[in-house]
Amino acid sequence: MNNRYCERCLRSTQDGNLWCQDRDCPAEAGLSIFKYGDYLGDMKIVKQISVWRTAALYEAERGGQPVWVKIAHSDPECEERLKAESAFLLQLAPYATGKKTSGSSFRPKPRPLLPVLMQPYPTPSSRPYGELSIAGIPRVFSVLTPLSGSLLRDILLQVPQVWHYEAAWIISSLTTAMHPLYSRNLMHLSLTPNIIMLDKDVEGHYRPALLDLGWLADANTSPAKLSTLVNRSEPAYSAPEISGARSVSALTPAADAYSLGMIYYEMLAGKPGYEPVIRHDDDLRQLVMQNRAPLEMGRPELAAAGVVQIVEKAISPRVRYGSVDNLKQALDGVYGKPLPEKRPVPLRFYALIGLIGMILLIIIVLALIVAIQSTRGPLR
Question: What does each C-alpha distance from 180 to 117, 185, 258 come to in angstroms?
């Protein structure tokens, strides 16, 4: 496992060395990643899904079954973040067993808005995360059930401007996904298009899932965690107060409303508010903190409907929505709540209907035979 990955250049190398003509490129300090064929315990890495600043997400195989595995980078705060996320997810729902249950297995299941944990080891463990040593380096990981779809980042490369109804419903659904955090007075503070996966239901509407719970920060966030949060934040999507945070008091739920507002802006404008990969982090942070003018969207038809004003308030450095719930209320007031999700009926449901039909047909045939025999009378 000698691959290195630069999260800004989006390039990797197999010999541990990266080079870029950009003198500010942090490639030489790239993140250590796994490649196809590497093993993490009993799991074989199949494909890299995404590399973030605190962890990487992979598709893997375990016992012949597909799983996802999230591996924290080798940094104490990154490892603690993944441990906290795993414990939080376990509070929300028990482990996914992968076993089919009668009854519910015949009904279409809604797409989960948050990751679903699986056991970290082949045998039950008291911890929701796993720890293994690779080449003498401890690695902390969690195992998740796979989800279908594509990252919002990749979709925006193909379709820069999302239909504004879909964009609003995506943001509204993401606020619903974040409700478990806010109900516990926790903040995400790490929202980007790279941690949002979209899939389409049977009617072609996007259904999002949040692949990472962020920092789960609160008023008791430690100075070390705050420092790592600031240094590993994505300046292009982080609120100005986060980039310049010196104390925990700078952390408020309004910062998450800003991040969702920046993602919403990108879907509507067809371009990011601040290009996340062509500038050095320090330069980008300065640009974000110094900018006080509204970002130009170029959508006059949305201005008349009040949508541009919603975006501007979401990303305003001064007068901003206090939380993502306030942003959701504003969006729902214009677009209404997201349409109910419609998922494909499982094939096993049709198999059950076919089996019942065959049984009924056999019963009908037998009944006809009996009826015919009774009309003919006894055989002589």
Answer: 16, 9, 19
Instruction: Please tell me the total number of residues recorded for the chain in this structure.
Output: 380
Q: Please name the helix (run of DSSP H) or strand (run of DSSP E) that holds residue 130, with its range, or none.
A: strand 130-134
Q: Which residues of 74-105 are buried (b: 16+ CB within 10 A; e: fewer)?
A: eeebbbbbbbbbbebbeeeeebbeeeeeeeee
Sheet holding 3-6: strands in order across?
Answer: 11-13, 3-6, 31-33
**Residues 206-261: tens digit of each pLDDT:** 999 999 999 999 989 999 899 999 989 999 999 999 987 888 888 999 999 999 99
The token pair at 49 is 């899904």
- The C-alpha atoms of residue 241 and residue 137 are separated, in whole angstroms, by 35
Distance CA(87)–CA(140), nearest Å, equals 13
Any idea of the CA torsion for 363, 364, 368, 369, to the nearest 10 degrees?
Answer: -30
Phi-psi region of 52 (alpha: psi -120 to 50; beta: other; left: phi over 0): beta
Contact between residue 269 and residue 241 where contact means Cβ atoms under 8 Å apart: no
Asked if 188 and 221 touch (Cβ cutoff 8 Å), the reply is no
Residues with Cβ within 8 Å of 142's Cβ and at least 6 positions away in sequence, in order, are 69, 70, 82, 85, 86, 89, 115, 117, 120, 128, 129, 130
Cα 286–chain centre separation: 28
Distance of CA 320 to the CA centre of its chain: 24
Three-state DSSP class for residue 327 = helix
Residue 213: closest CA among 168, 161, 238, 178: 178
pLDDT in tens, 340-356: 887 665 566 566 677 78
Whose tokens are 């989006």? That residue is 10
DSSP3 helix / strand / coil % (the chain, rounded to 5): 40, 15, 45
The whole-angstrom distance between residue 42's C-alpha and the CA centroid of its chain comes to: 25
* Helices within the chain (DSSP H only): 76-92, 152-158, 164-177, 179-182, 223-231, 240-243, 254-269, 281-290, 300-304, 307-314, 324-335, 347-376
- Contact, 327 vs 257, CB < 8 A? yes
Q: Would you say 260 and 175 are in contact if contact means Cβ atoms under 8 Å apart?
A: yes
